[in-house]
Amino acid sequence: MESKEIDRHLNDLWKKVSGNEYAPEAPSLPPDVRQSNMETMRFLRENFSKAESEWKTLLAAKETQLRDLTSQLEETKAYLGELKQHYQEAREQTINGEMSTALSLGEAKKLLDAQKRNHAREITLLRELLERTKTEIMSLQDRVDALRAERDDWHNKFTALSVEKADLDDARAGLAARLADSKEAVEKTLIELLSERKTRRDEQVRVKDLEGQIKELTGRLDSAKANWDAERTQWRELWDRERSVWETHRQEFAVWEERLRSEREAWTLKMREQESKGVENAAGLANVLKESSQWSEKVTQVLKLYALRGVELPRVLVSAGPHEGYIRARRNVGRALALGLAGLLLMSGAAWQIYAWRAKVHYKFIVSTPLDLPNPSGLAVTKEGLWLADWNKGLVLKDINDLSTLRVLPAPAGGPLRPGALSASDRGLWTLDMAQLRYALQNFTDGGITEAFKTPGAAPQGAAWDGNSLWAFDASSGLLYKYGLDPAEGASATYALAGVNSLVCMQWAGGWLWTLDGKNVLRRYVLKEGVFNMISSQNFGKKTAAFWVEGKTLWSIEKAGELSGRYELKRYSLKLYDLGFKELDIFRD
């Protein structure tokens, strides 16, 4: 539907709605006309609703057409915008082309002017060159004439030289013969020279080999010299330490001598006091006996006096029967008391023997294995195996079952390390380094030192780890040192060990301190209230270098013989008792 038809329909509807095509209503209607008016109104309303629906339909169609026109207008505007853009681009391209053409024409004009100037300059140069060429041609003609004259002269000279050449050919033949002789002589000389050079080369090779051997021998001598210097330094340090130890021992001996002298004087004074007391007691006893004898004599005289005068004494005093019974009873009581005292003495001695036997360490030999270490000095057992310390080889790990060598840890870099004692901890192996007088903690893998500190004195001996602290003994002071969490800060406490002056080895096991001194005496101590009390003391086999207690097994390194100089590893079964006769297992978890 076109817009004109829509407008026409709208106008018709408006006329219908406004009532222009209908007759005007009467100002008033009679009552009988009301029914017809109602019908007329209903008809009008129906027509109005129809017209309204048609009008709405036309309005919707008009709005749809307006939307279509609006979209067409937008598309037309977009198309016009594109056309303007294309026109603008074409205009810019045209302007750019005209400008480039104008620039090209300007450059072409400048180039043409430059070519004209160059052409004029070239014409001038060509003219100058032509004049110069004419002059050179004339000079060359003169030179050609001079060369022709010179050629004639050379031709004459060549003829003379030909004759001379023939003479020279003859001389050359003679010289060739002589050259052949000389060549043969030179070849012989060259052969001799080559043989001599080969001989010289062989001699140089031998000289180089000898120089290498000399250098190797020099290096060996230098290393031997360095080793000798190091050994001499170590021996000097060892001598200084031994001398300091000897001086310390001498001072200790002087102190001990003074102490013994004072003790002997005190003991002498005490004995004199005891003797004086004994003399006084003997004098008192003599007085008592004298008084008792005098009293007995007086009683005897009284009895004699009563007997002479015929006075009869009471039977209690003079009866012979009761007096003999009393004497017999007293003898029996004295005999019983003597027997009881003797029995008590015997029982106390037996009880002491039983207690001493029960308090000792009971061990039984199981097996012995020779060691391949020349100078062992320490022993420790861990979960990895059996660790042995040697003065020369360092640390050696062996299998605990067949004693095969599993690992050898030499001395770490940074100086010599001479192990004098060994103890195992959870972080590594505590080693007493006698070369530098220090305690070093070495790891289980490569023997590297993770911690080190100086020894407490000049004569350190032994090392023992109790699970928390490290314990060390020094023979110069005769004291036992305990180190805390940071051993580098020094000892946290010192203790005295009764009966120990020098140690070979010590270990903490079962809450007791086990020690083996220089006289091969094995002792056990318990720490109570800051004092070490000795539990047991006994001799231990042959000369022992180290021992280790592990569970119910006792390991020891002992000399194979007095003259052999070799060592062997021995294993013992261990048994301990408590105050009763029950076997004591101090290593149970």
What would you say this structure looks like, in words?
By secondary structure, the chain is α+β, with helices and mostly antiparallel strands. It has a domain at 360-584: Neuraminidase. Helix content is 57%, strand content 22%. The protein is built from 4 helices and 21 strands. The protein has helices at residues 3-18, 34-309, 315-318, 320-359, and strands at residues 362-370, 376-381, 386-390, 394-398, 405-409, 419-424, 429-433, 438-442, 449-454, 460-465, 470-474, 479-483, 491-496, 503-509, 512-517, 521-528, 531-539, 544-550, 553-559, 567-577, 583-584. Strands 1, 18, 19, 20 and 21 form a 5-stranded antiparallel sheet that branches. It has a 4-stranded antiparallel sheet with strand order 2-3-4-5, with no helix packed on it. It has a 4-stranded antiparallel sheet with strand order 6-7-8-9, with no helix packed on it. Strand 20 (567-577) and strand 21 form a beta hairpin. It is flat. It starts with a helix and ends in a 5-residue tail after the last strand. The relative contact order is 0.04.
Key attributes of the depicted protein:
four-stranded antiparallel β-sheet; 4 helices; flat; 589 residues; five-stranded antiparallel β-sheet; alpha+beta
